[in-house]
Specification:
Blueprint lengths: L11 E3 L21 H11 L3 H8 E4 L2 E4 L12 E2 L2 E2 L7 H4 L10 H11 L3 E7 L1 H20 L7
Antiparallel strand pairs: 1-6, 2-3, 4-5
């Protein structure tokens, strides 16, 4: 299994190019799932109660809270405007850690999907191994938090 991991010992060049490609949903693959921390961050940013924020900007799919998907946006994030994130400072952990997600660090995924669809890979400053490890830990903790906060239907 280790052989399938990409080598980032010497770091990886990455700098967001503002293409907005990572902000477009590809069915359930593209949901922006929200942890409690994400919800609190957004609530504070919008000066809304958690309940009001969830009502205005969220949906629940299979028990998981995520940013709403609107048909008229054709898969674009509700906060994407002119290929720019309008909530960049309060963006969710899922967005903060992109493209350094644990699921992306498989060489097949990285080479056939991430590096092909994300124009920032291979550009800009070198992201160090330590920084990548930190982002992977944040991604893992965020994923755990999302799983722990899954809403299960009453029986």
């Amino acid at each position: 299994m280790q052989d399938n991991l990409i080598n980032f010992k010497n770091g990886i060049r990455f700098e967001c190019q503002g293409s907005g490609k990572c902000c477009v949903s590809r069915d359930s693959y593209g949901f922006v799932y929200l942890s409690k921390i994400d919800l609190q961050r957004f609530s504070k940013y919008f000066k809304l109660s958690l309940k009001a924020f969830k009502k205005k900007y969220c949906q629940i799919t299979d028990g998981f809270i995520h940013l709403t998907e609107k048909e008229e946006l054709k898969g674009n994030c509700v906060f994407l405007k002119d290929k720019m994130c309008t909530v960049y400072k309060s963006r969710p952990s899922q967005c903060r850690t992109w493209p350094f997600w644990n699921e992306n660090m498989n060489s097949k995924v990285w080479n056939k999907d991430i590096s092909v669809n994300c124009p920032g890979v291979g550009k800009g400053k070198l992201i160090s191994q330590n920084k990548i490890i930190k982002l992977l830990k944040e991604d893992l903790n965020n994923e755990k938090s999302i799983l722990e906060n899954r809403i299960t239907p009453l029986k």
